[in-house]
Each structure stands twice: as C-alpha cells, then as structure tokens.
Write a structure and sequence with these properties.
Length: 169
C-alpha cells in the first residue's frame, strides 16, 4: 500500500520568506510546489487582487493540487492563506484525497518585511501597503501548525525545524 500523500500549506504575509522557504522545503522533501503568485501570472491576473481574481487563483491551485495529490505525490503550496475561508477548502481537499496535511506559518518582523519589500522581485508585486493591509485582515490559524520566524531563523534552520516537526506528526 502506498503511503498517504503529504500536503504542506505554507502561509504568511508578503515578504515573510514563505516562497523561499517553500522552495527549499519542497526540494528537501522531493515534493512538488504550487505558488499563488506564479499561478496568478499564468492566469493573466497579474496586478489583480480583487476578491474574484483571488478566488480564481485559489480555485486553480485547488484543482492542480487535487490532481497532484490523487497521483500520490507530495505537495508544498505557498500563498498568504490570510483568511480561514481560504484555508478551509484545503483541509477539505486533504480529506477528499486522503492526504496528510500540515500548516506552516512563516512570520517576519515588520522592519524586515519593509526592507525586503524595497527590493523588486519577479515573483511578487507586493508593496508595503499590501503587507499592512493583509496584516490587518489576517485571521489567525486555529489548526495546530508550525510557526517559523524568518527574522530569527536561517533558511536552513527553518527547513530543519519543519522536517523535525513533520517527523513528530
């Protein structure tokens, strides 16, 4: 019998380091990765952050994730997941695909976020205004989850902590 696929959801505000962390974690685990910013671009929704556009991106991510998990492959998904309504369908997907699910929240100090947001990035259009708006709208993750502070831990330490936490689950 094949083991359950693993679905790791990496949540966090813009410039928290979640994409860098998700890339490193996926590589370490040999997992596939989905990123909301990359998918937004593929859907020709770059620069569109209204609720309808966000919904299209999340629905497309869910569809792709379902295909991957049903193939028995492990998956790391990286997005803000700033609202419970955006996280709930992923738990439903995990139940539907019999995947083991882990939430990881990546945080960063406001000072570090502001500094990071001053550096143009090809994979994100986030600005300080976007960061503060999402921070104000952030709904705490109620599910048991791992919280990693990118202002205090190196990338290697974050990946190792995530691997250790997964092994304990």
């Amino acid at each position: 019998m094949n083991p359950k696929p693993i679905l790791i959801l990496v949540a966090g505000l813009p410039a928290s380091g979640k994409t860098t962390f998700a890339n490193a974690l996926a590589k370490k685990l040999g997992a596939l990765r989905l990123n909301s910013d990359t998918l937004r671009e593929k859907l020709n929704l770059r620069g569109k952050y209204d609720e309808a556009s966000k919904q299209k991106v999340y629905e497309a991510m869910l569809t792709l994730a379902e295909e991957i998990l049903l193939e028995g492959k492990n998956l790391v998904v990286d997005s803000t997941f700033y609202k419970e309504a955006l996280r709930k369908p992923w738990q439903e997907l995990a139940d539907k695909t019999n995947a083991a699910t882990f939430f990881i929240e990546v945080t960063v100090s406001d000072e570090d976020a502001r500094q990071r947001l001053q550096i143009p990035r090809a994979d994100s259009e986030a600005t300080w205004d976007v960061y503060t708006s999402l921070k104000e709208s952030w709904e705490p993750i109620e599910e048991p989850h791992l919280k990693l502070n990118a202002s205090k831990l190196s990338l290697e330490e974050m990946v190792e902590e995530a691997v250790r936490a997964g092994a304990r689950s």
